[in-house]
Design brief:
By secondary structure, the chain is an alpha/beta fold. It has a single domain, classed as Spore Coat Polysaccharide Biosynthesis Protein SpsA, Chain A, CATH 3.90.550. It is 33% helix and 11% strand. Helix 5 crosses helix 8. The longest helix is centred in the first third of the chain and has 22 residues. Pfam families: Branch. GO terms for molecular function: glycosyltransferase activity. It is found in: Membrane.
């Protein structure tokens, strides 16, 4: 037998284990490292990278990506610190979540090394109401979280005025409803986002950019409104990042700023049009719109915060889902001492 005829079979024999490994362990996209000094970012490049993220969750316990959308300081950072770390199974719990913060562009990360928020700030851009900038910021958070960890399955968007209403353990069990799977696929789970079709001023909101601007991509019959804050599964998060068709409409400037709240329109409309059967149509963030001012919900002050109030805020008022509320807003920064006093005995005691 010639030397050449011997080498070929030998090479194929050596290659078989490598082929088997690649076939059974799909190559995942590289993790995107977070920036320690958020300044600017090329959104187009970021979204293009994120569109190649896998929908399949690899072997391991699925995680929740907590995405903080802020334009001021993280007023309730100490409370959230307790939420993420005050557990009897702290080491296990730490592996079940990731944190991403979109702050104002010139924010300086001054958190101590022991803080769960240290080095979790992503490159950011300025945001303001009645503009598509809040949509862009949310898509930026989603894209970063999709790239950062393929185990991220649920993506929870909260603000600096949000507080948790339960322990992290309760939140995790509620979302996954059973022991986390170790398989490469998770069963299809719904996303929790408010989707409304019969709200007052629907038409005024729809024509805020011009009477026929949204057509034909977004007919009025498909237009929806809802809460800015949500919990999306990985499939829907990837759907948001990949979208170009609806985004080119919702990114247009508003002519009537009094009825234009793009961040409350884009996400409910997109998911309602693309995958309505896997959307709960309800948010898990409790908000009180009684006495709202300037398009903002009611803000709670320290005198209102009691153990009874926390328990009341948890109770679902949804007609379609009885899942307990997991978060609530808006709370004034002055509420922090009161909330910290009752954190262990009330908020995190499920």
């Amino acid at each position: 037998m010639s030397k050449t005829s011997f080498i070929l079979p030998f090479t194929l024999l050596l290659a078989l284990p490598l082929f088997f490994f690649l076939f059974t362990h799909p190559v995942l996209p590289p993790k995107r490292l977070l920036s320690s000094s958020p300044n600017t970012i090329d959104d187009t490049s970021l979204f293009r990278q994120a569109t190649h993220s896998t929908i399949i969750v690899p072997r391991g316990k699925p995680k929740i990506a907590f995405m903080f959308l802020t334009h001021t300081d993280l007023h309730f950072a100490p409370l959230w610190q307790k939420y993420f770390t005050s557990s009897k199974q702290k080491n296990i719990q730490k592996k079940l979540y990731n944190i991403y913060v979109h702050a104002y562009p010139n924010f300086e990360d001054k958190y101590q090394s022991t803080s769960v928020f240290k080095d979790r700030f992503i490159p950011a851009k300025k945001t303001e109401r009645s503009s598509p900038t809040l949509i862009s910021a949310t898509r930026r958070l989603l894209a970063t979280a999709l790239l950062d960890d393929p185990l991220n399955y649920y993506f929870a968007l909260v603000s600096e005025t949000c507080i948790p209403l339960h322990s992290f353990s309760y939140t995790y069990k509620t979302l996954f409803k059973s022991n986390p799977t170790e398989s490469t696929r998770l069963p299809a789970r719904v996303s929790y986002i408010e989707v409304l079709s019969d709200e007052p001023q629907m038409w005024d909101r729809y024509i805020a950019r011009g009477e026929s601007v949204m057509e034909p991509e977004v007919p009025f019959t498909e237009f929806r409104v809802g809460s800015q804050f949500f919990i999306l599964n990985r499939v829907h998060s990837l759907m948001v990042v990949k979208d170009r068709t609806l985004w080119k409409k919702f990114r247009l400037p508003c002519l009537n700023v009094d009825t234009c709240y793009p961040e409350e329109h884009y996400f409910p409309t997109l998911l309602s049009m693309k995958d309505p059967t896997r959307v709960s149509k309800d948010t898990l963030t409790r908000v009180d719109w009684t006495g709202s001012v300037g398009g903002h919900p009611r803000t709670y002050d320290p005198s209102e915060v009691t153990p009874e109030m926390i328990k009341e805020l948890r109770v679902s008022n949804s007609n379609t889902t009885k899942v307990s509320y997991l978060f609530a807003r808006k709370f004034s920064p002055e509420c922090l001492p009161v909330l910290m006093d009752m954190a262990d005995d009330v908020i995190f005691r499920d």
